């Protein structure tokens, strides 16, 4: 049962979110078409393509107080396409983090962690009912 139709996020939130993404693109540069390949949504690809084109900034010039190692790691982490971005394991082995990383004293999970609890098997009707209950909890008075 839908009580009222309105945006899930406020316009202010959407503006801040879009400005954050836009700011990241101004720093890392506009992605090329190959870098957009991981986006599953045509709308997302269209949105990114319609943004003004920006060249990648020189991170060392942009962050002059950072060490060259920190700049190098940051550049490897701030890659638009997650498939081309540095992995966590490689980032932990990066020379910049060497003073904080010792493979011999770090715990390792004995088996892959199960995130099954994040994907409960629930139907569309169950989801609708849960959303309705949540709405009623915060807006108990019916809207005319």
UniProtKB/TrEMBL annotation:
Signal peptide: none annotated. Keywords: ATP-binding, Nucleotide-binding. GO terms for molecular function: ATP binding; kinase activity. PANTHER family: MITOGEN-ACTIVATED PROTEIN KINASE. This is Mitogen-activated protein kinase-like protein MMK2. It comes from Hibiscus syriacus.
């Amino acid at each position: 049962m839908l009580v009222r139709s309105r945006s899930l996020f406020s316009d202010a939130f959407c503006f801040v979110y879009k400005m954050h993404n836009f700011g990241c693109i101004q720093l890392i540069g506009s992605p090329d078409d190959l870098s957009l390949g991981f986006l599953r949504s045509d709308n997302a690809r269209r949105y990114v393509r319609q943004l003004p084109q920006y060249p990648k900034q020189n991170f060392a010039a942009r962050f002059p107080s950072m060490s060259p190692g920190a700049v190098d790691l940051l550049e490897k982490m701030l890659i638009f396409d997650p498939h081309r971005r540095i992995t966590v394991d490689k980032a932990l082995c990066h020379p910049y983090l060497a003073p904080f990383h010792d493979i011999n004293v770090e715990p390792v999970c004995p088996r892959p962690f199960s995130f099954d609890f994040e994907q409960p098997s629930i139907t569309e009707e169950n989801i609708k009912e849960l959303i309705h209950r949540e709405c009623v909890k915060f807006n108990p008075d019916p809207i005319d």
